[in-house]
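Quick question about two entries, pasted in order.
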Amino acid sequence: MSSNTENPVNVASWDKIFPKSDKVEHKKVSFKNRYGITLIGDLYFPKNSEDKKLAALAVCGGFGAVKEQASGFYAQTMAERGFVTLAFDPSYTQGCYIELQMFDL
């Protein structure tokens, strides 16, 4: 049985516990880590910054935290201050898609 997916779940509404900033653009992204596990993230960047070079930050919460909580809020806040930021859930947490092995069931 596989729970791996190449595309993140399309969320039509704001799925965070913090208010959405009107100064920031947001989009869902997915990527594979060095172990081949697909991770889901939220990419934040200042509005009207598409043609600019910006410093980037990756933000990840501690064990049990998810990107829809504090790490997403920090990422959005840093994007308001001019950074491109990625908030993501680490491997083996909520926004992670892995192949299930028989011993995992």
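Here is the second entry:
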Amino acid sequence: MGALFDLTLMGQTRRSCQDAIGAIFLAINKKAKYVLDADIAKCFDRINHEQLLRKLNTYPTLRKQILAWLKAGVMDGKELFPTSEGTPQGGVISPLLANIALHGMENEINKLADTFDMKRPDGTQLSKRDKRQSVSLIRYADDFVILHEDITIVQRCQEFISEWLKDMGLELKPSKTRLAHTLEEYNQEKPGFDFLGFNIRQFKAGKYTSGKVRGKLLGFKTIITPSKKSQKRHYKKVAETIEKHKGKSPAILIRNLNPIIRGWCNYFSTVVSQKVFERLWHLTVWKLIKWGTKRHRNKGRKFIVSKYFQKIGDNNWVFATKQEGKNPMRLLQHSDTTISRYVKVKDDASPCNGDLIYWSTRMGKHPEMPKRTALLLKKQKGKCAQCGLFFKEGDVIELDHIIPKSKGGKNEYKNWQLLHRHCHDEKTRNDGSIDRKLSHKPIRIPENYRWENDLLVT
């Protein structure tokens, strides 16, 4: 069932929120656009069951089972609340069913784009392909945005989506749906928008910081950061956790805080987050000092800092336990998180399409690929270590020892590399290891020789 409804970012295996943000960045990084930032009102609660089952179009046994799930209701204590519409909130299958309900939105917008009057500077109409590519719809679960440089196009898409949702018993939520522009203020709406916890906005920039297209200055730069709501929500959770453990030991506090900080920072580690991380860590330090003063009410701040904070390396503000002869348990710092660019999954890539090389290179693992080969593909970024070309589907990939075993090389991970078969043959021929594999030394023919009566004469 999941494979049939595999077109949106949430429904596709190995897709994530970062893929949705990556798609938005690619849509606006070269051109400022208007945006419909939409949210569906009570999406999980209002889905029409009959329309959902009709769209699912499955065989009777599965249809009956899904209808039973939809009607299962919610048990609160000993009281049962039946479900007459929508999907059970928090259920394992609810996101999939909601995704099925919204399936087809992208195709309908593409069909609508074909009818738009879009012209080139010379007055000729754009092709259907160019029209479809100019309208960007990025959806994750029940949150979606529509992007285009013409506000009338965005407004027509909004009207169309509002009508299209009615068939499923859904509607756009006015309080959370807004029209804005990525660079300029529009209709008293501030530039930019929030999506999946990120803030996406463009800022005017000079020649040294502006984005460029083919060497031409754009006059703006696209910046994606954690949204202010996400920052406040995260700090509130950190502060509540510290407050909740005011009577606990530092080790217990660290054990409870680390997963919160690690998870949040990893989620935003692919965008411009360094300054945000530093600010949040600064606020966390002050909260920890306050936590310490409540434990030692008659002591000053200097005592609290010296008791609970240590100098490790060049960092003077490491909140850690003091353990003699052992590595201290330390609190993760937001600002220590490495910012790394996220590589968006290819639009047409799916683990189900048999592209083992792509997914092994990306993930470092695949159920149909030997673990050793998958790890090396990821390490080598999908390239042959000999010729530097990318491995392609159908290539014969062989494991090679960088230092041949016949010359003392060990059979271990750091001495392994992947090569094309023909590259492997070439390396083996040139590194001299082929001679060691022979049971006898090859006959060396002297430089000066001649043949006489089928005999070699020197």
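Reply: Confidence is low (pLDDT under 50) at residues 1-11. Residues 274-295 form the longest helix (22 residues). Hope that helps.
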